[in-house]
Amino acid sequence: MRREYIRMVVVLMIISLFSGAVLAQTYKVTIPKINENALRKQEAAIIKVIPGAKSFKEVSKDGVTAFEGLDENGNKVGMAFIAKSGGFGGIITMMVGVDMEEKKLAGMTVLSHLETPGLGARIQEDWFQEQFKGKSFDDGFVVKEDVDAITGATISSTAVAKGVKDSLEKFLQVFGGEY
Hints:
Blueprint: H1 2-49, E1 55-61, E2 64-70, E3 76-86, E4 91-99, E5 104-112, H2 126-130, H3 154-175
Antiparallel strand pairs: 1-2, 2-3, 3-4, 4-5
């Protein structure tokens, strides 16, 4: 009887080691493509949230990274930055575009999230993201006041609004006087 238990433990250990090795190798092979796709999605989001931008350049100052949107002639047409906030299921990452002359948001799009499908995942819907376009820097970004909440996903809605507002404040502290 004891011999059978030892045999089962050894077999399970071998299966576990083999499975772990296969998973590690799969990760090693797929992570470059995953990172490449994430970078492409981020680049497309920058162009999307800065109206008139055809290209962009990354700028960093005081530990804050932003993106300057450039038109076809290389003139600056807006800026964008990454905003993050803790949602119901995990971190929500967004790209936020700003019009520094008008002191308004030019757009916002969700890059990644782990919110509940059918509820919090609705933060990716156009109607939800479009409500941030044109918001003044001075708006409160308060859910159920000046930001419409998603029914059944108030935590996710609040996380997006708070993430945009908090990141906007940090961005403006560093880049507010430059445009």
